[in-house]
Amino acid sequence: MDREIPKQTLLRERRKLLLKIAIVTTVVVVIIILLLNIFAQGIRADALQFSTVERGPIELTINTSGIVHPAVEEAVVSPISSRLLQVFHKQGDSVTIGTPLLQLDLLSTQSSYEKMKDQLQMRILEGEQREAQNASDLSNMQMNLKVMDMQIDQKRIELKNALRLDSLGGGTANTTRQVEMSLKVAELEREQLKLKIANEQRIARAQRNVKELEVQIAAKNLNEVGKVLDEAKLKAPRTGILTFINTQVGAQISAGMQVATVSDLSHFRIEGEFPDGYANRVSTGTPVLIKAGSQRLNGQVTLIAPTSKNGTLNCSIQITDSVVTGLRSGLKVELYLQTAKKHDVLRIGHAAFYKKAGSYQVWVRNGNEIERRKVTLGEASYEYIEVVDGLHEGDVVVLSDMAAHKDHLKLKLR
């Protein structure tokens, strides 16, 4: 027959069990803390990028960025205010020079052109009519002049006869004076007619010049409207790629509005900027290394803005490589403006943490550990950074970003 276990015995056994559980739990917690501490202060070596301090040259560069643009692009601008009726191409299409791109509503402009054309023809006909009228008037006056010459010759004969009769006693002095007076009046009338003919000729020439000038002005205006009408057909100004085109059919287009852009995407230029503090070290012709992804290209500065904006100077860069692939308009690229070269200096590979010359906390390898060390770094190129102080040739430096371990002085390598 079973006996009932005393309560004290049960309580004592329960205390022993709780003590064992507490001890086991404490040991597990301590082990976990130790492991976490070990792993927290350690780092995998294969996750880091190292560089050995060495001696060599450094091409000093200014690190900046730029945007790729087509070397040649031409805007298509509407010469008139009109409405967009039809679009023949879309953005990205290849076009050749003279290819129609857009169609505008040209009814009003065409009507104006035909009206000016009729006005020009009317001015030409008016000029021909005036020329014929002047020629007829001058011809009549020339004929009258010939008649007057004949009359004057006749009067001279009459005066000669009158003088001869008067000398023979068969005439009178009064008759002779009348004939002589009639001759002088006829001669004066002839001189007056000559002057009138000369004046009419000058007037005719002036009228002809005025009419010719009016015709020239009308023809010039007609040609200008014709040129505008031709330009309003909106054709491609060059062979290239459509990088922009207005596709809003029915939209109101104002005169001078850009409606398309044709670019030559076989050649590119780069628009970049750099701090104006380096203005004395950068000039036209400065070599530039261009990094577009994994691709590296060579170029040179061709233009520097004359004024600074927000502490930077804009610059244009021409790519000097003969073969360029993989670039796209609007692509952002890294630029390294090569301003000078230093020989036989301590250097390390370019690191992610480097911003500019100055003091840095870097991690240096020491066996199976890396330790933090204060160093002074100088100027840099796209590949190397100059070491001024704090490192020696042969030291191995961590190039990876170690900002997450800024509270540690040493870390074990695993």
State the main characteristics.
414 residues, alpha+beta, six-stranded antiparallel β-barrel, three-stranded antiparallel beta sheet, 18 strands, 37% helix, elongated
Describe the fold and architecture.
- It contains three helices and 18 strands.
- It is α+β, with helices and mostly antiparallel strands.
- A six-stranded antiparallel barrel has the order 3-9-12-11-10-13. It has a three-stranded antiparallel sheet with strand order 6-4-8, with no helix packed on it.
- Helix 2 (107-168) packs antiparallel against helix 3.
- The longest helix is centred in the first third of the chain and has 62 residues, at 107-168.
- The mean pLDDT is 82.
Number of helices: 3
Given helix and strand content, the structural type is alpha+beta
Number of strands: 18
Strand order of the largest sheet: 3-9-12-11-10-13
Which consecutive residue ranges, at least 5 long each, have pLDDT under 50?
none
**Average pLDDT over all residues:** 82
**In percent, how helical is the residue content?**
25-40%
Strand percentage, roughly? 25-35%
Which descriptor suits the 3D outline? elongated
Distance between the termini: 65 Å
Biggest sheet statistics: 6 strands, antiparallel, barrel
H/E topology pattern: HEEEEEEHHEEEEEEEEEEEE
Radius of gyration: 51 Å
Topology:
Blueprint (H helix, E strand, L loop, with lengths): L6 H34 L1 E2 L6 E3 L1 E24 L4 E6 L6 E2 L6 E3 L2 H62 L4 H59 L8 E6 L6 E2 L4 E18 L11 E6 L2 E10 L7 E8 L12 E18 L8 E9 L2 E12 L3 E6 L6 E3 L11 E4 L1
Parallel strand pairs: 1-18
Antiparallel strand pairs: 2-17, 3-9, 3-13, 4-6, 4-8, 5-7, 7-9, 9-12, 10-11, 10-13, 11-12, 13-16, 14-15, 15-16, 15-18
Helix pairs in contact: 2-3
